[in-house]
Structures are given as C-alpha cells and as structure tokens.
Amino acid sequence: MTDTIITDESPTIVCVAHGEQPRVLTAWLGVGRKPTQCGRCVEEFKEAEKQRRREERVEELKDRLNLPARLCVADFDQFVATEKQRQAAARCKAWVEEVGGREGGTLILPGPPGTGKSTLLAACCNHYIEQELRQARMTTQRELIARLRATWRKGAEESEQQVLDDFIRPELVALDDVGVSLGGEAEQVQLLDVVDGRYKRFGSTIIATNLTLPELRDALGERTYDRLQQDATVVICDWPSFRTGGARG
Ligand SMILES: Nc1ncnc2c1ncn2[C@@H]1O[C@H](COP(=O)(O)OP(=O)(O)OP(=O)(O)O)[C@@H](O)[C@H]1O
Ligand SMILES: [Mg+2]
Ligand SMILES: [Zn+2]
Questions:
Q1: What is the mean pLDDT of the chain?
Q2: Which of 135, 213, 204, 118 is nearest to 170 (CA)?
C-alpha cells in the first residue's frame, strides 16, 4: 500500500503506485497499513483479501482431506509418461470437474499394483478442493473399517454413527484399496452403510482397487456394487508399475 497525494477535491487522486485514480472515501485497510483514497489500491486490497481467504479455505479443506504425506502434492500433471496415462489422468480430471461432488456419480479405478491409482485419487481430491472449495475426504478401506470397528469397543471415543457421518457427509470421498481382504460379512455391511449413505445424499465416490470389476462385485456384494456402478465412470489403470520403473518413458 502506498501514499496518496491529495491534490484538490477533484473526483480523482494521484496515487504513487497507480497514478491518477478515482478517489474513494478514505479507506482504512487494516492494522499497520496507511489509509488510502486511491480506488485501485482499495480494489487491489479487496482482491488480495479474497485470494487470502480462498487459500485459507483450501488449506483447511486439505487438512480435513487427510492425505498421507506422500500424496499431499499429487496432481494430474504427473501422468504424462505415456499416452494411456495422459488419457486416464484427463478422464479423471474431467470427471472431477463435471460430476465430482454434484451428481452422486462414481469413478472406479481398477488396476494392478504400482500404477499410481492412489496418486490419481489424491490428485482428484486436491483438484476438487481447489476448484470447488468443497470438502473431499480420502481413506483406505482398511482404515475406514478399523475406525468403524473401534467404535464397538467399550468406552470408545466416537460412535459408529459419527464415523459413518465423517465418510458420508463430504461431497467427495475417495476410497482406496477397496476389496482387499473384505472377507467377513460384517465388513461388507459396514462398507454398504457408507456407500448407501453417500448414494442417498448424492455424494460422489471414487474407488481404487487391484481387483477386476467382477472380482470387485464379488468382494463388495451385490447391493454395494449395484449402487456404485449406477452412473459409474471406469478408468482402467493397466499400464506397467511405476514402482518397477516400467511405466516411465
Ligand atoms: N504419474 C506418476 N509418475 C511417476 N511416478 C508415479 C506416478 N504415480 C505414482 N508414482 C509413483 O509410483 C509409486 C506407486 O504409486 P501409487 O501408490 O499411487 O500406486 P497404486 O496404483 O496406488 O499402487 P497399489 O495398487 O499398490 O496401491 C509411488 O512411489 C508413486 O510415487
Ligand atoms: Mg494404492
Ligand atoms: Zn493506488
């Protein structure tokens, strides 16, 4: 913020930074700043404030997104080594922009280990938060089930309903590693509770799995799978693993 030179009572003012500008009533732009009568200074200040609040909101939403440290900076631009990866990332991005969080659709990413599915999930959530300023949440199936199961213990800090709400309320939820060792019927029911709760609220859900779609159907059970596959977009991630270096170049 800069000094303004008040020349006369004309409707304009000469600002050190902006030259001749429309005069506004003396504006106090907060502690530690000089008051100004320059319209552009005031506009710039308002814009900077808006940007600052937006960044604060993104930060807050990303805190609640709960990404593991390795995935915090994940974005779609990482998927450029091959045309297949580029297309997969572009389809995920388009899904987030067109469907994510608004219409209760599902994005399913099946593929073998190491192809970057978790990275894509995180990229979807990051992009969603940055674009929409709304809540996304990422978790693994194992973590979800463990948190739900922990509520059954005597003296548990949170109720089962609270945990369910945590994963039902966000506009977008990414469930990673779905289908692994989903042996018991109790686990299938817990997952159904989450998927059905989201389905009823038109929440959008992203699923990553090492299983094929028929295997996923068997693992989840008919009722869960049926809800997920309604209005589903499937992006198969079947390029070689990044972990062995095969997917680069
Ligand atoms: N687009 C990419 N370009 C380069 N490396 C990547 C890319 N995506 C992921 N990686 C790296 O590849 C490894 C595997 O990624 P990630 O964990 O996302 O795969 P995954 O498909 O989720 O694997 P899994 O099925 O075993 O969970 C990680 O070390 C990650 O940093
Ligand atoms: Mg993974
Ligand atoms: Zn100015």
A1: 90
A2: 135
What is the count of structural domains for the chain? 2
Task: Quote the CA–CA distance of 245 and 249 in Å, as a whole number.
Answer: 9
Task: Tell me whether strands 19-27 and 12-15 are parallel, antiparallel or unpaired.
Answer: antiparallel
Ligand 2 centroid to Cα of residue 80, in Å, is 19
The DSSP secondary structure of 74-133, one letter per residue, reads --GGG--SSHHHHHHHHHHHHHHHHTTTTS--EEEEE--TTSSHHHHHHHHHHHHHHHH-
Domain range for 34 is 4-62
User: What are 37-49's pLDDT values in tens digits?
Assistant: 899 999 999 999 9
Structure tokens belonging to residue 56:
């604060």
Determine the residue of 118, 124, 181, 241 to mutate for testing ligand 1's pocket, defined as the one with the most ligand atoms within 8 A of the Cβ atom.
Answer: 118
Protein residue with its CA nearest to atom 7 in ligand 1: 116
DSSP string, 171-205: SEEEEESTTTT--SHHHHHHHHHHHHHHHHTT-EE
What is the position in ligand 1's atom list of the atom closest to the CA of 85?
1
pTM of the predicted protein model: 0.88
- Is 69 domain-assigned? no
Asked, for residue 174, whether it belongs to a domain, the answer is yes
CA distance 191 to 45: 48
CATH number for 138: 3.40.50.300
- Has residue 181 been placed in a domain? yes
CA of 35, nearest ligand number: 3
* Protein residue whose Cα sits closest to atom 9 of ligand 1: 116
Pocket test for ligand 1, best of 119, 138, 142, 239 (most atoms within 8 A of CB): 119
* Partners of residue 209 on adjacent β-strands: 110
